[in-house]
TrEMBL record:
Name of the protein in its database record: Acetyl-CoA synthetase
A family per Pfam: AMP-binding
Record keywords, A-Z: ATP-binding, Ligase, Nucleotide-binding
Alphabetized GO MF terms: ATP binding; CoA-ligase activity; fatty acid ligase activity; fatty-acyl-CoA synthase activity
Entry's family note: Belongs to the ATP-dependent AMP-binding enzyme family.
KW Ligase (keyword) present: yes
Amino acid sequence: MLERSAYQQARAQFRWQIPARYNMAVHACDAWAARDPDRPALFVMQDGRPRPIPYGGLARASNRLAASLATRGISAGDRVALLAPQSPEILVAHLAIYKLNAVAVPLAAVFGTEAIAYRLADSGAKALITDAAGIAKLLPEHGLSLIVCLDGAAGGIESFAGLVAEGSAAPLPVSSGPDDPALMIYTSGTTGRPKGALHGHRVLLAHVAGQSFTHDFPPHPGDRMWTPSDWAWAGGLLNTVLPALAHGVPVVVQPPGKFDPEAAFALLAAAQVRNVFIPPTALKMMRSVARPRERFGFDLRTVGSAGEALGAETFAWGREALGVPVNEFYGQTECNYVIGSSAALGVSRAGATGKTVPGHEVAILRPDGSACAPGEMGQIAVRAPDPVMFLGYWNRPEATAEKFAGGYMLTGDVASKDEDGYIHFQGRDDDIITSAGYRIGPTEIEDVILRHPSVALAAVIGKPDAVRTEIVKAFLVLKPGVTPSPEIEAEIQALVRTRLAGYEYPREFAYLDQLPLTSTGKVIRRDLRARG
């Protein structure tokens, strides 16, 4: 009998252990605060050095805020929106909301007035915790009964620090169950209007297991986690912050400001970061920095990446430039961390997203619900029920029902699985290009284009064509100092023909200063398609 691999053993031995009573704030903070209150939970950069904030301090502050929010009418089931960049205060607010059995509705700091107004109205948010910049984006008819500002009180707006100071630090009687609503994250809106994906407290348990798989089973001595991603979306909050804290791994708070590759490498060294979650788009931007380990002297133990396909080119760069393999993984706001790589368990292959994460069952299905053959493109589907799966779309029962069929949750994303069980993400079904009878995934073309020395970023779409149905069109962001030219285009076409196939090369090109991205760092392909 063949000996099982480490991955196969992990799959066979995995069992979910979900308690009857469970609360995310207790798991992520209070359990550690009870047994090791001085253990660092966060590190905030101050005068170029990381300043620790202990678990005990987070627990007390969140107790105080929860008590004050309760006196102002916030109770179980109420939606409380959060709108501010990464900060200790935003984490305290999350924990306080969970302790009240209310529902946190994180909103990205980059959202504009209309995006915020839509989500506040759609969620029926009762309260908003934000900063001065967030308040400036509110419409007069916001419908909120309570606004709390991180920057102080003013004109009917309460002070965050004031609420924390006045509340009792005594622990709250937490009695939530794993299926009680705790968190509502809006879909990024790559297709259609954003929908609120409602999650129960159990979603954290599933992400703790996923983070163990992709970050070599933390905590290890010296582990310290960081992500440049906004904590308002699943990548920042659920892939990174909350499971790291549950593992006892402190989280470095990202200084405010636009993502800068050089500054990111400097932060890795200054904050002594050992573990990172960095979306593929950010990693591709970091490729522009030469000799980063030599220049900055950081020492990473694990790197995770998700949000879009990483690609073989960026995978190879990461191993060389970062010093460790990049463990790519996949999920959606509705059902996250279900496919992944784990170099520690021997699951690591250039160009592949990974294999099914232990504890989940993932299939690649044809439109009729049958399983695809190896190498055949189909829809990624996750067997239901699953602890990481959402409770449903907020006030959208029809949309929720449409998400399920044949015992699976349908993702709407397209992938193929090879004979070794590795899953290769191709894109959303809407993004697949049909040209002269061929179905073409955009991500592998983009990955090959990135091999060209003049290209910094690339995105590919299908453009309608009377003869071929669609042709491949590439949108390029060139490296500084490079000018568009027919020679570059011809070289890219030859590169794609050689590396992939003759029918996959771009027949048209367009040049942009930057790609249109969602707040989660995903390319908004519908914007590119609208450009023609």
